[in-house]
């Protein structure tokens, strides 16, 4: 009996010990839970404060954005109004310049006719021919006549252009960027934008294509399809991809370049073994301009490096033409600071090789864009000084630049050279939204 009482006493002591231990554990858990709840409360208060601050900043930024958009819209409206006024003044001046000169009167019965006024030869920048151009606001023509201002040059090489204003741009101005064309359309994308615009040569209409994933890309027509090359998404996210537009989407069908770059200059070199894409210059990942030149072999689908440019060129544009003497392809690359270089390309069954670079005469103006028209190297637009903007067309003849005339577009405009010996010149700085088509 006593043994059972002792055993029961031991069991009771164990139960009491377990009960006390459980109470202690429960008290510790309650204390820990209180600490966690306190921390959660503080975090909740901080989140509420951050949310309130973020909402205030968002409202402030939205207000600033709305104000900026209103100011931009007002500024664009003012510029459009000024452009219309300037166009009207130019039309009136052109009409006055083209008005027939009144014949001088002679005295009745006089045997001698009055002396006829001396007719001056037309200058290069004249805006009219013998007849007045059309005075409609949407279309006017500009005949750039051949003259004898350069008697030492070969007149048979100097291009005679006829320029006509077409439908205005779908957006407010285009400055720099890239352009290309096929048999029916010209394609444009401006600096800082992912939008790709298409202009119909036959219909004189504009349409908007699917946005390119990268801005500041180069455009080219490769095997009948529009290709966007390079570009970037952010300040340091440069692309080396070649994207092909198929219906409504861009696809990566061609191998990427070895050097990621934006704002590149590029030309397409057609060859029996395939379509080669040559890329020169551009801006690289460290925000510097590069002198790198590489070419995609259309047959092997591999990139290989060519001779670098003599120095990095800012906002380069390239043009490819065939020499009349040897049939060699001559690649010319110009930049925004009047530099101009050229090299010869030699085509073989397996590859494209390039010679060393040579300097061409400095461009007539900075910010010009190069292209080829009927086998001749032509530059359009540019800025001659900080206070004088010009929009002239120059042709390289006998190693010197010859002015062919002027066009009604802004400087630093975009140019597409078409397959039918035409130039489609659009936009330019100063908010110009003109579209000018020049044909030989």
From TrEMBL:
Residue ranges with Basic residues bias: 104-114
Region (Disordered): 94-149
Highest taxon of source: Eukaryota
Composition skew (Polar residues), residue ranges: 133-143
Gene3D superfamilies: Kelch-type beta propeller
Keyword entries, A-Z: Kelch repeat, Repeat
PANTHER family found in the cross-reference section: KELCH PROTEIN (PTHR24412), KELCH-LIKE PROTEIN 28 (PTHR24412:SF441)
Protein name: Uncharacterized protein
Lineage: Eukaryota, Metazoa, Porifera, Demospongiae, Heteroscleromorpha
């Amino acid at each position: 009996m006593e043994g059972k009482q002792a055993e029961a006493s031991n069991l009771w002591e164990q139960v009491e010990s377990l009960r006390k231990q459980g109470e202690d554990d429960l008290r510790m858990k309650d204390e820990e839970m209180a600490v966690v709840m306190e921390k959660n409360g503080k975090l909740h208060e901080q989140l509420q404060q951050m949310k309130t601050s973020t909402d205030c900043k968002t409202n402030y930024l939205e207000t600033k954005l709305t104000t900026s958009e209103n100011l931009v819209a007002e500024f664009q409206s003012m510029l459009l109004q000024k452009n219309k006024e300037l166009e009207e003044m130019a039309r009136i001046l052109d009409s006055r310049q083209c008005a027939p000169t009144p014949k001088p009167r002679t005295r009745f019965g006089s045997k001698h006719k009055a002396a006829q006024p001396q007719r001056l030869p037309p200058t290069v920048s004249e805006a009219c021919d013998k007849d007045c151009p059309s005075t409609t606001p949407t279309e006017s023509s500009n005949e750039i006549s051949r003259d004898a201002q350069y008697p030492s040059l070969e007149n048979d090489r100097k291009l005679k252009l006829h320029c006509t204003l077409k439908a205005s741009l779908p957006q407010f101005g285009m400055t720099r960027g890239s352009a290309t064309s096929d048999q029916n359309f010209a394609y444009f994308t401006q600096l800082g934008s992912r939008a790709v615009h298409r202009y119909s040569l036959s219909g004189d209409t504009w349409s908007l294509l699917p946005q390119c994933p990268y801005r500041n890309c180069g455009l080219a027509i490769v095997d009948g399809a529009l290709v966007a090359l390079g570009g970037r998404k952010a300040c340091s996210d440069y692309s080396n991809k070649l994207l092909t537009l198929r219906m409504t989407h861009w696809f990566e069908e061609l191998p990427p370049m070895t050097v990621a770059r934006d704002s590149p200059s590029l030309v397409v070199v057609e060859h029996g073994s395939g379509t080669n894409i040559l890329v020169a210059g551009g801006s690289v990942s460290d925000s510097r301009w590069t002198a790198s030149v590489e070419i995609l072999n259309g047959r092997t689908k591999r990139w290989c490096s060519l001779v670098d440019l003599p120095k990095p060129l800012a906002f380069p544009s390239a043009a490819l033409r065939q020499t009349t003497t040897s049939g060699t392809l001559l690649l010319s690359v110009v930049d925004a600071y009047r530099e101009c270089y050229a090299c010869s390309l030699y085509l073989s069954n397996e590859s494209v090789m390039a010679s060393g670079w040579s300097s061409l005469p400095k461009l007539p103006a900075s910010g010009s864009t190069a292209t080829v028209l009927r086998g001749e190297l032509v530059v359009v637009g540019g800025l001659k000084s900080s206070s004088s903007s010009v929009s002239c067309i120059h042709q390289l003849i006998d190693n010197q630049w010859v002015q062919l005339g002027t066009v009604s577009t802004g400087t630093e405009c975009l140019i597409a050279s078409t397959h039918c010996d035409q130039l489609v010149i659009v936009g330019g700085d100063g908010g110009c939204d003109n579209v000018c088509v020049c044909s030989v």
